[in-house]
Specification:
By secondary structure, the chain is α/β, with parallel strands linked by helices. It has helices at 18-31, 49-55, 83-89, 99-105, 109-122, 134-138, 142-153, 183-201, 203-208, 222-226, 243-250, and strands spanning 7-11, 39-43, 62-66, 93-96, 125-130, 166-169, 211-214, 233-236. α10 links the parallel β7 and β8. α1 (18-31) packs across α11 (243-250), α5 (109-122) packs across α7 (142-153) and α7 (142-153) packs across α8 (183-201). The mean pLDDT is 97. Bound molecules: 1,3-dihydroxyacetonephosphate (13P). The site of 1,3-dihydroxyacetonephosphate has 14 residues, from β8.
């Protein structure tokens, strides 16, 4: 048992127009109980943030976040979005270092670290993502890869700031493949991450930090994954685009 309130986050990736996004979040709200056991978060694409914020105007059960951010308040950074702009549109959370950013856009731990610290400096809560590739897992390197991503992505973050940080373990081989980690595989890595957190930030921060699992979380496997001692929530991709399915996952905590 722990005092960590589970977080169920829906990463909508590059899906949904403004109207579609507003309809999706409205349908989700209709399916949530008055007091969900989990904290619920949606992460629409940038262009739909304002529309979703508006749809959530009188709604306290669902938080809003973005999928990425720069670290500066403003500047000549074409194509980037500042954490202050995300606060301005109503976000409280932001992803940092999602594996698709790392794999497809070359983001390194050093860059992810800048994004996460920029988010913290602005008062946003970063969800820092880590996870090994299939090749790394097959080579028996899972725990060392994850430990090094963790240390690199959180370099310079203080134990106090960790109160605002969530981690997400997303094995790359499980993302969008329909092949989720088994509950035991997820628990093994999460327990190791918590141990690493203890070494980096002390026991109290390690105990308090939420570690989400992501990678083919579906309504039918969510309860088993979320039942693991060190799995404090889920970062859901494909299944978060279906309001009923996502609500079922939120209820599985
Ligand atoms: P899927 O749930 O579609 O596998 O995506 C996981 C993910 O990348 C969430 O951030």
């Amino acid at each position: 048992m722990s005092a960590r309130r589970p977080l169920i986050a829906g990463n909508w990736k590059m899906y949904r127009t403004q109207a579609e996004a507003a309809a999706l979040v409205t349908a989700l709200c209709q399916r949530l109980p008055a007091q969900p056991a989990a904290e619920v978060l949606v992460l629409p694409p940038f262009t739909a943030l304002a529309a979703v914020a508006q749809a959530l105007a009188s709604e306290s059960r669902v938080a809003l976040g973005a999928q990425n951010c720069h670290w500066a308040k403003e500047g000549a950074y074409t194509g980037e979005v500042s954490p202050w702009m995300l606060l301005d549109v109503g976000c409280t959370y932001v992803l940092a270092g999602h594996s698709e950013r790392r794999q497809l856009f070359g983001e390194t731990d050093a860059l992810v670290n800048k994004r996460a610290r920029g988010a913290l400096a602005a008062g946003l809560k970063p969800i820092v993502c880590i996870g090994e590739t299939l090749q790394e897992r097959d080579a028996g390197r899972t725990l060392s890869v994850v430990a090094s991503q963790l240390a690199g992505s959180l370099a310079g973050v203080s134990a106090e700031e960790m109160a605002h940080v969530t981690l997400a373990y997303e094995p790359v081989w499980a993302i969008g493949t329909g092949r989720n980690a088994t509950p035991a595989q997820a628990q093994e890595v999460h327990a190791q991450v918590r141990e690493d957190l203890g070494r980096l930030f002390g026991a109290a921060a390690a105990l308090a930090t939420r570690i989400l699992y992501g990678g083919s979380v579906k309504p039918d496997n969510a309860a088993a994954l979320l039942g693991q001692m060190d799995v404090d929530g889920a970062l859901v991709g494909g299944a978060s685009l279906d309001a009923a399915g996502f609500a079922t996952i939120c209820a599985a905590v």
